[in-house]
Amino acid sequence: MKHEILLSAPPVIRDFLTYSETIKGKSARSVEEYYLDLQTFFRYLLTVRGMVDTQVPMEEISIESVDLELIRTVTISDLYAFIVYCKNERNNNASTRARKCSTLRIFFRYLSAQTHLIENNPAELLDSPKLKQSLPRHLSLEESIDLLQSVDGPNKERDYCILTLFLNCGLRLSELCGLNTTDIRPDGSMRVLGKGNKERMVYLNDACTAAISDYLAVRPNDQIRGDDRNALFISRNHRRLSNKTVQYIVKSYLDKAGLSGQGLSTHKLRHTAATLMYQQGNVDIRVLKEILGHANLGTTQIYTHVSDEQSRRAIDANPLANVKAKKQASTTDDSKE
After folding, report:
1. How far apart are alpha carbons 203 and 205 in whole angstroms?
2. Among the residues of 110-151, which ranges form H helices?
3. Which helix (H) or strand (E) holds 189?
4. Integer angstrom CA distances of residue 118 from 12, 75, 113, 124
5. pTM for this structure?
6. Is 286 within 8 Å of 297 (Cβ atoms)?
7. What is 257-320 written as a DSSP string?
8. Once rounded to an integer, what is the mean pLDDT over residues 311-326?
9. How many angstroms separate the CA atoms of 108 and 32, rounded?
10. Helices (H) and strands (E) in the chain, counts
């Protein structure tokens, strides 16, 4: 959590953020999003309650005055009015509004059920906007192969290894950049540090093992600064590769493979790995959850969508697929004598 957040947040919110990061194990990024959502809500609340100068722009309103006395007056009507404000005045899409609803539910549940600082939880029955269930964009098997085959240049072993781990292991960007050489185990597994500093083991297939071996054979070992000495992926400046640099590397190969302009990114490579494992590798959804490092199965189930071809095969496999109605022989109505 950034130091400036701790300084600007009122005590009740600061305690919630600290609890979320240290006890609940939330990432610094998640905690920062909690703060920004709560900051927006209380800026709105202070404004509609007439507790701030109307001449002060919304983005400059201080929430230092927020305390338990104010929080105890919040109703579910206030929460829904805030979500409407986010939609109409801030043009927040359904996904962003749903995240704000989630933040409010977590915050007020902490105050009511965890610390018992408030008696009633106004967010207990707060519903989130209905989200459109769009399928995650991913590469086909053929496009994935084209991407891998596009790799060349002075860092081809490193870059090929990066793409291979994304496409085979479904790593997050931060997870890949955070890998150390010591995370590659002799038993063919790899230690991954995921969200909330949760560790998981990912087993490496032959493609990953070969790519890592080829890269380690040429990985620079000299002039690496102490803090980055164990980093798996090293830049030309002998530092750990940053998230931004890896994003640039992936984008450059997507362009070279003719896959640009499709909204693809490092995270879409994670989607690709998950989709290929589920659709073509027949990996059980519960196993996929562990590989991806998801906290709950519901997050993983987005990958249970099936392709058009799978749907067609399923319908064709029905034992009634070839049963057709018998055609009755046509008859002529003889005239009665």
Report:
1. 7
2. 141-149
3. strand 189-193
4. 11, 12, 9, 13
5. 0.61
6. yes
7. TT-TTS---HHHHHHHHHHHHHHTS---HHHHHHHHT-SSHHHHGGGG---HHHHHHHHHTSTT
8. 70
9. 17
10. 15, 2
Helix (H) / strand (E) element for 200: namely strand 199-203
Q: Which amino acid is at 176?
A: L
The structure tokens listed for 176 are 């890949």
For residues 220 and 235, is the Cβ–Cβ distance under 8 A? no
Q: Which of 151, 187, 182, 185 is nearest to 166 (CA)?
A: 151
Four-CA torsion 307, 308, 309, 314, nearest 10 degrees: 90
C-alpha 5/C-alpha 40 separation (Å) is 14
Q: What is the pLDDT of residues 199-224, one digit of tens each?
A: 999 999 999 999 999 999 999 888 88
Measured distance CA(168)–CA(139) in Å, rounded = 12
The 10s digit of each residue's pLDDT in 95-130 is 899 999 999 999 999 999 999 999 999 999 999 888
H or E element in which residue 214 lies: helix 206-216
Question: Coil, strand, or helix at residue 184?
Answer: strand
For residue 279, the tally of other CB atoms under 10 A from its CB is 18
Residue with more model confidence, 308 or 97: 97
Catalytic residues: 172, 195, 267, 270, 294, 303
